[in-house]
Amino acid sequence: MATGLTTLVSVEELKAQLTNPDWVVIDCRFSLADTSQGENHFALSRIPGAQYAHLDKHLSSPIIPGSTGRHPLPDSQTLEAQFRQWGISNHSQIVAYDDKPGAIAARLWWLSRWLGHESCAVLNGGLAAWKQADLPLETESPTTRANGTFQSKDALTQVIEKPDVLNEDLCLLDAREAERYRGEKEPIDPVAGHIPGALNAPFMENLNADGTFKSVTELQNRFDPILAKSGDKSLVHYCGSGVTAAHNMLAMAHAQRDPGAMYAGSFSEWVCEPDNDAFPVARLVD
User: Fold this and answer.
1) Which residue, 2, 46, 58, 60, is the most exposed by fewest CB within 10 angstroms?
2) CATH number at residue 253
């Protein structure tokens, strides 16, 4: 059982622990449009002591065209070694942040649980909240931490594989925006629409206007009707590539609800063979 923070951490809580050697801060800034942008911005300034996690290099494995989605799961042993390189040990409190709505940070949060480490939290409001509070940034060379001793344990989350997605005992929840879910537009993947039978819960609706997460009560009011619709079925989250789905899972965990499982390959894996009738796509437009 974890003794640390397991969903969200406030800027005030993080500020108070910046010199605590047991706290490891991970900067997850990343841009799909410019995959070097986050790393470049990290080199210029960061929350003091932060290490950098690159979505493609650290939090995903290489894409295999026609076989995987856009952000395949990393190799677990490689990620375990990377955790040690970041200075993480099994007693560490991990804090992840990014400069967007928190989806990349949530990916690290979920992967931490995948490796069996529960004491991981996302900075509520991200880097924007840190700056808004006028808290310090480190501008000299990034801090190098001594290697940690992290060893993975039994996973705290379940992964659903592509052949099992249409199992009638599962209820799918799509985290993408409604237009993509309905099939009205698809700016990234080769096919528009959603996995048949899936419900839609756009991840951005987890947030207040300032980018912080809604209250526990508000998130319960958001997800309880979905859980009621799922009935006795097991909830499985997906999105475009297994990133924003983690945001919904984090929001559910913060709302004190079981976040269920993830189809990590997500829609980009589902449609990587566009003409394969075994993996149909539904649309809500003509």
Assistant:
1) 2
2) 3.40.250.10
Give a yes or no: residue 139 inside a domain: no
First-to-last alpha carbon distance for the chain, in angstroms, is 50
* Owning domain of residue 23: 8-132
Neighbours of 26 (CB within 10 A): 26
183: left (phi over 0), alpha (psi -120 to 50) or beta: left
Across the range 114-118, mean pLDDT stands at 98
Give the tens place of pLDDT for each residue, 68-115: 999 999 999 999 999 999 999 999 999 999 999 999 999 999 999 999
Instruction: Report the pLDDT value the prediction gives residue 274, as an integer from 0 to 100.
Output: 77
Please tell me whether residues 105 and 163 are part of one structural domain: no
What residues are labeled active site?
Answer: 239
Q: pTM of the full predicted structure? A: 0.97
Q: How far apart are CA 97 and CA 20, in angstroms?
A: 17
| Cα–Cα dist 200/265, whole Å | 17
- Provide the mean pLDDT of the chain: 96
Q: Clarify whether residues 16 and 109 are in a common domain.
A: yes
